[in-house]
Design a protein that fits this description.
Blueprint lengths: L3 H16 L3 E4 L3 E3 L3 E11 L4 E2 L11 E6 L3 E4 L5 E12 L3 E5 L3 E4 L2 E4 L3 E6 L22 H7 L1
Parallel strand pairs: 2-11
Antiparallel strand pairs: 1-3, 3-7, 4-9, 5-7, 6-7, 8-11, 9-10
Length: 153
């Protein structure tokens, strides 16, 4: 029984510390140039906690651009003692290579906390150099209808 109490106490403390840490998850960390991926930022905390959410610009880093930011979604536990705030963001990159999505900072009850940083790999498109290059096709000309003639005059 004496060994059970410290284990139980440590598990409660670890749940409390994890409960207020924000997280970020990517739908895909490997994309092609110009392809879009979704990031989900979330934080789980007490219902009465005051949260100052992330302040977004138009980019996350010098190479990662923000396409769209969704509204913040708030979910409460059944007993209304806990809440989870989450927000989705669509991002893209137009350079190839490996890029870091830096940790983002927010305030929970006047305490500064940060998300975990993520790495994103951006690959170029495969080009088949064994085939010759083909010119761009010219626009097709469509025949005029009686309605088109009528609108001209």
């Amino acid at each position: 029984m004496k060994k059970f109490i410290p284990i139980l106490l440590c598990s409660f403390l670890s749940i409390y510390t994890i409960a207020q840490s924000p997280s970020v998850k990517a739908s895909s960390q490997r994309i092609k140039i110009g392809e879009q991926t979704t990031l989900t930022f979330s934080v789980h905390t007490k219902s009465e906690s005051s949260i100052e959410w992330f302040r977004w610009k138009d980019t996350l880093s010098s190479s990662i651009e923000i396409i769209e930011i969704q509204n913040i979604d708030t979910l409460y536990s059944d007993d209304l003692s806990q809440k989870t705030l989450s927000q989705q963001m669509t991002i893209t990159c137009f350079d190839s290579g490996y890029f870091a999505i830096p940790s983002q900072q927010l305030m929970i009850d006047n305490d500064s906390v940060e998300t975990n940083p993520l790495m994103m790999a951006v690959f170029t498109l495969e080009v088949d150099t064994s085939k010759s290059f083909i010119d761009i096709k010219q626009p097709l000309e469509t025949p005029l209808t009686w309605k088109d003639y009528y609108e001209m005059f």
